[in-house]
Amino acid sequence: MRTFTFKGLFLTAVFMLLGCLSIQAADDDLITRQITIKLDKAGTLPDKIGSSKKNLITKLKIVGEVNGTDWCFIREMAGSGYDGKSTEGKLSVLDLSEAKIVEGGDYYNKYYYYENDVYYYKNCYTSNDVIGKCAFKGCSGLTSLTLPDGITEIGDEAFEYCSGLTSLTLPDGITEIGSSAFFGCSGLTSLTLPAGITEISSSAFSYCSGLMSLTLPDGITEIGRSAFFGCSGLTSLALPAGITTIGGSAFEGCSGLTSLTLPAGITSIGDDAFYGCSGLTSITIPNGVTQIDKNAFRDCTGLTSLTLPANIKRIGESAFENCSGLTSLNLPAGITTIGSSAFYGCSGLTSLTIPDGVTKIGKYAFSNCSYLTSLTIPSSVNSLGDYAFKNCSSLQSVHVSWSTPISVGKAFNKADVSKCTLYVPQGTEQDYFLADVWGDFGNIVEYDPTGIDKVTTSTDAKELSRYSVNGQRLATPTKGLNIVKYSDGSVKKVVVQ
What we know:
The chain is mostly beta strands and about 500 residues long. The longest helix is centred in the N-terminal third of the chain and has 23 residues, at about 5-30. The protein has helices at about 5-30, 45-50, 50-55, 70-75, 430-435, and strands at about 30-40, 55-65, 95-100, 110-115, 120-125, 130, 145, 155, 165-170, 175, 190, 200, 215, 220-225, 245, 260, 270, 280-285, 290, 305, 315, 330, 335-340, 350-355, 360, 375, 385, 395-400, 420-425, 445, 465-470, 480-485, 490-495. It is elongated. The chain is built from five helices and 33 strands. Among the domains are: about 315-445, Alpha-Beta Horseshoe (Leucine-rich repeat, LRR (right-handed beta-alpha superhelix)), CATH 3.80.10; about 450-495, no CATH class. The chain has a five-stranded parallel sheet with strand order 1-2-3-7-9.
């Protein structure tokens, strides 16, 4: 058994104290004033500064040409070596306003890629007027950076995990920002992108959680996949009119985003595009959008109302799942398919009219819409998925218009239809009574709204219900002939322009 004497413990304490004093002494030796280095030849920065001062300089300005050899040295000064491992460098402020990046010299970093189940790596070298691939990757101590005016491109992963970077101005000449260029720059609070940029590449600003203000130039046409994934600090964003594509997961996890207007030219909203944007209360979807892909607005719990464009044909799987704040929903007449779990957990919905033309309602489509009291399903529906209305426990009335009951399987599982009234076309009550599931409804009532012979002009009474001429229950006035029932027992045929 190892034993410790008082003397041993005392010596240990002394050595630890001396170590701390050494560290403190090293910190006291830091050079906090700006050091300006003029390079007459690219590749000479290591010789100009030397190894003894490399880890002590905190503010540096470079004048002249820099190549890969210089860049490797800069990275080491900024806390990250050529192999991506941390160094003791303390450089936090770097001014390259009078520098020019040129090709040549040693490689300054490595990047890894996966191909055919095997990991490979390639070395990174400088190119003329380019902030190259992985240029500052992992330089987390860097807080302020001024780039040369002649820069035309920022490469993939150029600033990835520069979490300490709070200030950055991008020169006007930049036309391209690579994938994951600013991935994980959580300290960056604002950024203005130059006018020449036309595309926001995939994951370009992913996990920039501190980013609150971002100005996008008018020339941008595409926002790539996961471009702003996890930018939880972003509260508002003006999208340029020229944008036509929003990639999958583009704004996923942007929980601080409260409102967003999509440009008129948008034709596609990718998978998971606004997944988890819980602060989003309203969104305008342009008419050019014909399809909303899966999970597009999933968990947007703050969304209270939704107007879908007339050209929408398909609502994808889980597109609005768990949008619990949604209290009203107007589905356009052109929709043909409502995907599985499309409105799962939209507990705020109280009334729902499926438009005539919908042929398929996927499984779990409206499951757990626990406050839904009124439901209208048109005869165009020929496929009603299992559990489509599961746990819709508040249902009081369901209007259908099939002349022959269709099979609905487990569509109303745990909906307690015994407390619900089923409205069916005239002359079909017995058929529905004998049919599986439909016969479980507590009350079955025949109706024929097209056979009205009592027409009044009185509008003093309160409107109770509204129908189309084919018997479809309407949630709101709909263009064409509407049949309205009032609280005084009167019925009125109304033409809505």
